[in-house]
From TrEMBL:
Membrane-crossing residue ranges in chain numbering: 52-74, 247-264
Coiled-coil positions: none
Entry GO terms, CC: membrane
Keywords: Membrane, Transmembrane, Transmembrane helix
Protein name: Calcium uniporter protein
The organism of origin for this protein: Parastrongyloides trichosuri (Possum-specific nematode worm)
Annotated InterPro entries: TMEM177
Amino acid sequence: MFRCPMLLSSLKGGAIKITKSTPVRNINQSKKTFKDKANEFIASPNGKRFKILVLAGTMVVYPIGALLTNGPLIKISFPFRYNVSYDVPNTLKELIEGEYQNFLIKEGRAKKDANVTFSINKDESIHDSIAKSSLSIRFGAQIALPFYVIFNTIEEATEYCTKNVKTMNFLGEKLNIDWGSEKGQEIIKTFVLSDKAKKFLITRDMYANDGYEAYGNRSLSWATWTAFSGVFTYVFHQRSKICNGTALSFVVAYPLFLICAWFSNNQWHELYRYVQDIHADKESSHLTFDHCEGGKEYYYKMLKRNRILREFMKDGLQKISAAGDIRKTRTSIVTRYDFMKDVSKDDEEMKVAASGDTW
């Protein structure tokens, strides 16, 4: 009885202050970490939409861009990406036109079904043709022949290299070459190709970039492999007991499976290009005896040039083999040269057999 009046008097005098209690839920919300917020977002409807957008975008953005770049926009993108010139010498134009007509006759196709534009690659660091797209599509293929196909004589090659190639960039190294020296002249001789070699090169490049696969192989492969990686990412992130749908699991799983998809896509494309290179060599070398001899000359001079250039390089032994083959190249030059020699042996036997049938 005595305590009650004392409490009442204390309340009136303000000795005891009553404060409003804060709910436990509000305290917990105010102490949320970034990890908690990320987990809540990734589990929310917006988070699910975000995951679908990322996975679907990964699958379709590159193929759409590549198909547009190598399709409707090929005439703009190709000269933008590479240092090419469409000013082709008349003698080379005649060879290109002749080989193109032979290609149409052999394949039984009309001009509208085999569209191709040839140019000259002015980049002296690239010693083989570069090409994009395909002859089989409406927009056609773009093929840039190496810069040295414009040479007809050693004098022309010497004059060009002396004026325009002060230093040669080759396999990531800058090489200072005295074109008037013995080694310089040996390199220049490998730049001068006969008409047989040029015909082989032109025909080979057309076969190497023919078919719808040449246009859409990499894009379709990317879409396929990233579709698999997207499924694996979602299952691993959402269904795995270890991950349990956390934001961290998505951040880890997405790039991990994407790297696997990129590697698989790259290897698949390399395999396709290797098969296509061998197919192109086979078709062009079997066209005539001259094409086969031209193929042997082209690859022999390439190997010889690489062996000489290796002597000017600091890391030449690591980048070029003793035979002149560029290490880590997609299709071995030695393999292609050996194939030409095998075809040449068969051609010699056919020549002997054919001569025996002459009355």
